[in-house]
Design a protein that fits this description.
Elements lengths: L4 H13 L5 H10 L3 H10 L3 H10 L3 H16 L1
Helix pairs in contact: 1-2, 2-3, 3-4, 3-5, 4-5
Amino acid sequence: MLFQRGEITWGMKMLARMSSKKKEEQYLLLQRIGRYKEAIDLAADRKDLDALEDIGSTLIDPTLVGYCNEKIGMLRRK
């Protein structure tokens, strides 16, 4: 999916302004601007298994699906 440069720039500025309490909104915004890996990494860093599973359910790219599943597996083992 292609995004206009302005939308990505806007999204990254919004992320910088969001408080960490708005976790779900951060994941959704990252997904909206096509930053799926960053959304996965953020959820994994926060040990948010529910968010990882939600993100994983929206992915199409097999590489990203595998990456997300790897992070989910790591959290489940802990």
